Amino acid sequence: VVCLVAYHIFFMLFVWSYWKTIFTLPMNPSKEFHLSYSDKESLEREPRGESQQEVLRRAAKDLPIYTRTMSGAIRYCDRCHLVKPDRCHHCSVCDKCILKMDHHCPWVNNCVGFSNYKFFLLFLAYSLLYCLFIAATDLQYFIKFWTNGLPDTQAKFHIMFLFFAAAMFSVSLSSLFGYHCWLVSKNKSTLEVFRAPIFRHRTDKNGFSLGFSKNLRQVFGDEKKYWLLPVFSSLGDGCSFPTCLVNQDPEQASTPGGLNSSSKNENHLFPAKPLRDSQSHLLTDTPPWSETTAKAEKGKVGMSNPALTMENET
After folding, report:
1. pLDDT at 95
2. pLDDT, tens digit, 9 for 90 and up, residues 247-266
3. Which residues form the domain of 221?
4. What is the spatial distance between Cα 227 and Cα 249, in angstroms, rounded to a whole number?
5. Catalytic residue among 77, 80, 97, 105
6. Where is this region: Disordered (predicted)?
7. How large a percentage of the chain has pLDDT more than 70?
């Protein structure tokens, strides 16, 4: 009875997560990343080169983007006519830009990205558990098959086939699931493993890693009761992501509050553009500052930005 209940639970979760992975539409960049009509006209009139980059820099001035192309240019999609958010890529199969794109999976006929990455992980996990469960419960009959302990019927072939299929799928799924668990722990996507994100100052393969705990929460959310269920609980909006401390953007003249001129020579400064409110709590576990707390901390270099507590962790 226990085995039968466990079988139905694994099967139900497997089908549920597989369904969500397939039918959850990948999220596209919000309207603020699309160029206005005047910007599109300006971009078409200008010759390729620095003049086009100037148009894109104006369009991306107030957008929370920190990554660049290999040449240091603004990441722009000429098919979707938008400034690409960080970790966003254009899928040639879907023919649209996908937020935090990991890969296009032919097995689910869908792009795996920000909107369904958690479902994809749960699909791998429950598929692996399902195959292990089948292999474990079939093992005793498989042993009897080789010791001639089973009746001589056609069911002998079915038992052998079932065990081999479950065992082989378990091996392949364990390697794939283990790989994606490593990606989650490092806060990377499959595309970012093959090509590390390029920030304004340099290439940084761990630029989005906030530490194991916060990396995990970014995918599965803060509510642990939803972690094992195929319901969306990932943090953020998919358009902006908290990062490690990176050098200040030289294009912006403003300096973050609390950083004096002597701190400009330090190796790491927090980006001048603010992160989205939905992401800010990942950078610190401390409650918001009150006015008295801010006065007490006045004079400490960099401490007016709670995100600077990330420096020791990363």
Report:
1. 93
2. 444 443 333 333 333 333 33
3. 1-28+114-193+208-245
4. 36
5. 105
6. 252-314
7. 75
Q: Determine, yes or no, domain membership for 214.
A: yes
For 134, the 3-state DSSP assignment is helix
Rg for the chain, CA atoms, rounded: 25
Q: Is 80 part of the annotated catalytic residue set? A: no
Asked whether residue 55 is domain-assigned, the answer is: no
Neighbouring C-beta atoms of residue 155, cutoff 10 Å: 12
Residue 269: pLDDT band (50, 70, 90) is very low
CB atoms under 10 Å from CB of 99, counted, come to 25
State residue 281's pLDDT score. Answer: 58
Count Cβ neighbours within 10 Å for each residue of 162-176 and write b for 16 or more, e otherwise.
bbeebbebbeebeee
pTM of the entire predicted model: 0.77
Dihedral angle sign, alpha carbons of residues 180, 22, 105, 168: positive
Task: Provide the domain count of the chain.
Answer: 1
